[in-house]
């Protein structure tokens, strides 16, 4: 018989702790918004974490057309984020360029970027 299911015998709280640290979020609404991200059509990026330095940076606030920070109804500065944070350019270059909404596109459907075919950068 195979190994037991990863969440067998775990409480709901213990199971939630495995998903993007959702247990640290301040409200159920934020928890559900974060949880929906893991149900998206995410592709695994094959990267060795030993060569990656993780750094926490300050939020980058949204600005209006006059350069002022945009705030919500509680006067809290707004940020534009999908909840996953920012990644460096070198990691972004490792991301597939032939995927849209979880589906692989044929290279004929991909437009050139900066005068270079996007798939060529994956071969470097």
Automatic annotation (TrEMBL):
Its EC number is 2.7.7.48. It catalyses: RNA(n) + a ribonucleoside 5'-triphosphate = RNA(n+1) + diphosphate. This is RNA-dependent RNA polymerase. One of its GO terms (biological process) is siRNA processing. GO terms for cellular component: nuclear RNA-directed RNA polymerase complex. Belongs to the RdRP family. It comes from the Eukaryota. PANTHER family: RNA-DEPENDENT RNA POLYMERASE, RNA-DEPENDENT RNA POLYMERASE 3-RELATED. Transmembrane segments: none annotated. It comes from Arabis nemorensis. GO terms for molecular function: RNA binding; RNA-directed RNA polymerase activity. Keywords: Nucleotidyltransferase, RNA-binding, RNA-directed RNA polymerase, RNA-mediated gene silencing, Transferase. It is an enzyme of class 2 (transferase). Residues 11-98 form the RDRP core domain. Probably involved in the RNA silencing pathway and required for the generation of small interfering RNAs (siRNAs).
């Amino acid at each position: 018989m195979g190994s037991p299911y990863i969440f067998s015998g775990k409480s709901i709280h213990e199971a939630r702790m495995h998903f993007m640290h959702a247990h640290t979020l301040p409200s159920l609404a934020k928890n559900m918004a974060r949880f929906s991200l893991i149900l998206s059509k995410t592709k695994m990026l094959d990267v060795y974490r030993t060569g990656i330095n993780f750094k926490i940076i300050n939020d980058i606030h949204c600005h209006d057309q006059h350069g002022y920070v945009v705030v919500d109804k509680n006067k809290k500065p707004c940020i534009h984020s999908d909840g996953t944070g920012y990644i460096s350019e070198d990691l972004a270059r490792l991301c597939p360029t032939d995927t849209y909404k979880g589906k692989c596109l044929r290279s004929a459907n991909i437009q050139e970027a900066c005068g270079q075919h996007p798939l060529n950068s994956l071969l470097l």
